[in-house]
Write a structure and sequence with these properties.
heterodimer; A: about 160 residues; mainly alpha; Four Helix Bundle (Hemerythrin (Met), subunit A); 2 domains; about 75% helix; B: about 100 residues; Helix Hairpins; 3 helices; elongated
Chain lengths: ~160, ~100
Amino acid sequence: MNAEAVVFWVFSIVTVASAAVVVLSRTLIYSAFALLFTFFGVAGLYVLLGADFLAATQLLVYVGGILVLLLFGVMLTHKIYDLDLKTDTTQLAPGLIVAVGLFVILSATAVRTQWMGLARPPAPTTSEIGRLFLGQYLLPFEAASLLLLVALMGAAMIVRRRRDA
Amino acid sequence: MISLQHYLVVSAALFSLGILGLLTRRNAVHVLMSIELILNAANINLVAFSRFAAGNLGGQIFGVFVIVVAASEVAVGLAIVLTLYRLRRTPNLDEADILKG
């Protein structure tokens, strides 16, 4: 087993195990912290895939932004010292059947298909991504910035406390 | 040798766990976390195909867009959850039935 395989298995196990904790943990705050390890594991997989820019973005946006937002969500909808939060689990058996069936079908498809195509040799991607964003993908790039602006204003608008209410 | 299939199977496991969370969890914040797992699984697929099968950076570009959409989604989603909590004093999605006639 070479070094790449070792690193891959370590990151995969970290990712999937902490994702299982996220889903199955009964305590919401444990789920939020397990999500941190999932995001780190996925960032590690990105590095292994030669996506250095995307790995850095993952750490900045997911760990620095989305996870903090989710923690705010946990703390604003619960009392923080209330460790045995009521997190109801319903339909566990049907959900398990659907999830396991989905996993079997997806991985069987992934393993049995003869994927063809050419591999991209690992190389620094940041400058190339920047060139693509300001060239070929300029319109989606601008649309994404507009989406962020709209989401920002919409979120502020929704949580605003109305004066007459 | 780690191949494309390895990444696809890891991504499938992450996606299935996210689906399991969506189906079994009733807490709104928990459901948002499961959606993040699903988006991450999709992103691993995009980057893996970009590395092994596409020969260009298109997959990574789409990965950046997925992250942008995830950030917007979680901001607006949490805003809705907080408003619901203020209105109903519960994060339980089953009790969010105000629109029911």
